[in-house]
Design a protein that fits this description.
Layout lengths: L7 E4 L4 H9 L3 E5 L5 H14 L4 E4 L2
Parallel strand pairs: 1-2, 2-3
């Protein structure tokens, strides 16, 4: 596990600095539409991650 203690971060957007830091820490990034319910975002991200685990996935909400 990385020094941040997380494996996945879900957000509406990532700045270049944050994106770079997450990639360097081997943390998966999932981008969701603003206003997406947390439960829906997690469910969609898990579904997409199981299908193909990329470093960043855009999730429509």
């Amino acid at each position: 596990m990385n020094k941040l203690g997380v494996k996945v971060v879900i957000a509406a957007s990532f700045s270049l600095t944050v994106s770079t830091m997450l990639k360097e820490s081997e943390i998966k990034m999932f981008i969701v539409n603003p206003g997406t319910k947390v439960e829906d975002a997690i469910r969609r991200c898990l579904k997409d991650y199981k299908a193909s685990p990329p470093s960043a996935v855009e999730v429509e909400g």
